[in-house]
Specification:
The chain is an alpha/beta fold. The protein has a seven-stranded parallel β-sheet with strand order 3-2-1-4-5-6-7, sandwiched between helices. The relative contact order is 0.15. Helix 1 crosses helix 8. The chain has a single domain (2-191, 220-249), classed as Rossmann fold (3-Layer(aba) Sandwich), CATH 3.40.50.720. Strand 5 (138-143), helix 5 (156-176) and strand 6 (181-188) form a beta-alpha-beta unit. 44% of the residues lie in helices and 14% in strands. The chain contains eight helices and seven strands, in the order E-H-E-H-E-H-E-H-E-H-E-H-H-H-E.
């Protein structure tokens, strides 16, 4: 159990009021972390944090729209004021306002994807990693996607942003490794979340996807949370700059 113990660690998780982010927050709290629940809606943050506290965990709620730099600064400052320095940063919040050929995406939608999915990760890491280094280390986990590993005719801009997240992890791992800051990505396959509902709720899309998955099913949010705990804890202490694919084998099958 000690390999996965997060007792006393402060974990900031963006996009943590539902889906993958919520599962990561709940499981990190189960393993002893003091977690920060964050999304755009304060009421939703409060509800999830209260749920964690009701089962004996420690959690606070700080609303933040990742598209606004000043709100990211406030998120980090408020976390430090209330809980102290951040030991674990999980960049999970992302968006994808467009589903279709990249040829037809508007400039506004393209810029929005890049600012949220790449820009917010970059800015949060700038805010958090230096203080991790000052305290002899920490773990940053970026939730990417297998879309960043493959070509796609429906998720082009999103896929580009997720590929960039993998490179951010590699760059930062090189820059900050000497100060014992580890930076890794998780690349989920199709997971049963509201964010991916357009992919798994459509029976034809679902069937076309899972027939190529060796496990013949999509994943559940908790199955990503397990990977996050591994990377955040002592069990992952010699892993940095990597992308762990959690996709039921989808990327290795024809």
């Amino acid at each position: 159990m000690s390999l996965f113990d997060l007792s006393g660690k402060v974990a900031l998780i963006t996009g943590s009021t539902k889906g993958i982010g919520k599962a990561i927050a709940q499981r990190m709290a189960d393993h002893g972390a003091r977690v920060v629940i964050s999304s755009r809606n304060q009421d939703a943050c409060d509800e999830v944090a209260e749920g964690i506290r009701s089962t004996g965990g420690e959690a606070i709620a700080i609303a933040c729209n990742i598209n606004h730099s000043e709100q990211l600064v406030n998120l980090v400052d408020e976390t430090r004021d209330q809980l102290g320095s951040i030991d674990i940063l999980v960049c999970n919040a992302a968006l994808n306002p467009y589903y279709g050929p990249i040829q037809d995406i508007s400039d506004e939608a393209f810029d929005k994807v890049m600012n949220a999915n790449i820009g917010s990760v970059h800015r949060l890491c700038q805010l958090v990693i230096p203080q991790m280094a000052d305290r002899d280390g920490g773990s940053v986990i970026i939730v990417s996607s297998i879309a960043g590993l493959k070509g796609t005719d429906k998720l082009g801009a999103y896929a580009i942003s997720k590929a960039a997240d993998m490179q951010i992890a590699r760059n930062l791992a090189v820059e900050w490794g000497p100060q014992n800051v580890r930076v890794n990505c998780i690349a989920p396959g199709l997971i049963r979340t509201d964010f991916a509902r357009a992919l798994w709720e459509n029976p034809d899309t679902y069937a076309a996807t899972v027939k190529h998955y060796p496990l013949r099913r999509i994943g559940e949010p908790d199955e990503i949370a397990g990977a996050a705990i591994y990377l955040a804890s002592a069990s992952g202490s010699f892993i940095t700059g990597q992308t762990i694919v959690v996709d039921g084998g989808g990327t290795i099958a024809d």
